[in-house]
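hiii, so i know i said id send this last week but things got crazy w the move. better late than never?? heres the sequnce for the chain we talked about at the cafe, plus the structure i predicted for it. fair warning i was half asleep when i ran it
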Amino acid sequence: MNIDIISYTDAQYAALNEEQLLQVKSAQLKKNKLDADLEEALLKEKHRLIDNGIFLSDIWALQAEKLRAEHALEVENLRESLLFYLRFSAKADTTESSGVPYETNYSLTMEERYYQVRDAYFAAYDDANERFTAFKADKVAPAYLGEYYAPLYDYISTFL
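okay and structure toks below
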């Protein structure tokens, strides 16, 4: 199964517990159904307009845009609810948090967490290699940052 509802790394998926993985799978299956329903609705609308002899008018573009916007909203709601669940259920083990240059605060938004971790690593390590090595060894960051882990990993690695 291709998971495209959220952007997690393989290591982050591996760190999820069984219940969390089931939630991800369930959300992905719902998204796949929404995608299939969209394609069916577009095809049905296209045939309806062809049967009425008005497919070549601007109505098709407007109807297709409306259906795609509704689909995008439903998928975004599904994605946000999954991320909300993972945000509060994927708390890292506090025994692993010793040695990281930041304190975990789960009341922060994901964007605030990203900046908190990024700034902490840049303040704690002047050497780019040391910073990257320490970030790679951080067991808390993948759960704490969620989808923001991979972009921060890439950002920190650009300084090597």
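btw The two ends are 34 Å apart (CA to CA). thought thatd interest u
miss u guys!!
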